């Protein structure tokens, strides 16, 4: 089991809220690659990598909103 998969398993067992983010497509100038993933915890902590500072802050903000709503989202970030 990978580090992120192991961590999500821990969070599920602890019944802790988190959002799983995965990059499905990427174009330059991003540093993220398709398949990159991270989890966002309720306190805003990000474990993993989904891109540089701009992408990370957007993913964090959207993830925290999703924790409140329980919805899912396909997020598109453009330069």
Blueprint (SSEs and pairs):
Layout: H1 3-13, E1 18-22, E2 37-41, E3 46-48, H2 53-69
Antiparallel strand pairs: 1-2, 2-3
Question: Which terms summarize this structure?
Answer:
single chain; 79 residues; alpha+beta; three-stranded antiparallel beta sheet; 3 strands; globular
Report on this model:
The protein is an alpha+beta fold. It has one domain. About 35% of the residues lie in helices and about 15% in strands. It has two helices and three strands; from the N terminus they run αβββα. The chain has a three-stranded antiparallel β-sheet with strand order 1-2-3, sandwiched between helices. Strand 2 (about 35-40) and strand 3 (about 45-50) form a beta hairpin. The longest helix is centred in the C-terminal third of the chain and has 17 residues, at about 55-70. The protein is globular, with a radius of gyration of 12 Å. The model has no long low-confidence stretch (mean pLDDT about 90).
